[in-house]
Amino acid sequence: MGGAKHIRLFGLLVLAGITAACGFAPIYGDNSVQYAAADHLRLIEITKIQGAPGTERLRQVLIGELNDTFRGGDQSEYSLEIAITESFEPMGIRPDGSASREQYILEAHYNLKDNVSGNILEESDVTARNAYDVVLSDFSNFQAREDSAQRGIKEIARSISLRLGLYFSDRDR
Length: 173
Fold this sequence. Notes:
Elements: H1 2-21, H2 37-41, E1 44-51, H3 56-67, E2 78-93, E3 99-114, E4 120-133, H4 138-171
Parallel strand pairs: 1-2
Antiparallel strand pairs: 2-3, 3-4
Helix pairs in contact: 3-4
């Protein structure tokens, strides 16, 4: 019993040593010499979120999710523009030809611009896919689509935040 404890402790110490020696640094960590990625993210203002008619609700939720990370305001140095599209794709087919399962697909194209130079600093596409069962109840199907959309928006917001955090982290090194 005591030997197993020592082996686990030794393994933990080795893992800590390897992690420290590889140059691992948290994305949002504090760095006294350079801005931390989190400092740059606070200087981003979401200027435009475009989408097809009917995606206003998605735009509002995305703004709410991203505003937790990006503060923007009067001192914003960067502007973020996002274009979103949503689609539905049947996945499972019943014997009568109707869908038994659908996939909700939310795609976002974003670009980050420097407000001073107007240059695009980072541009990418992000996709979130969520599947749900199609049942006989219209209300249940509506609710399943809404839940899929909410999960998709959160995935998109998290992915954009992480990608921009990595961009600033790599740029400052």
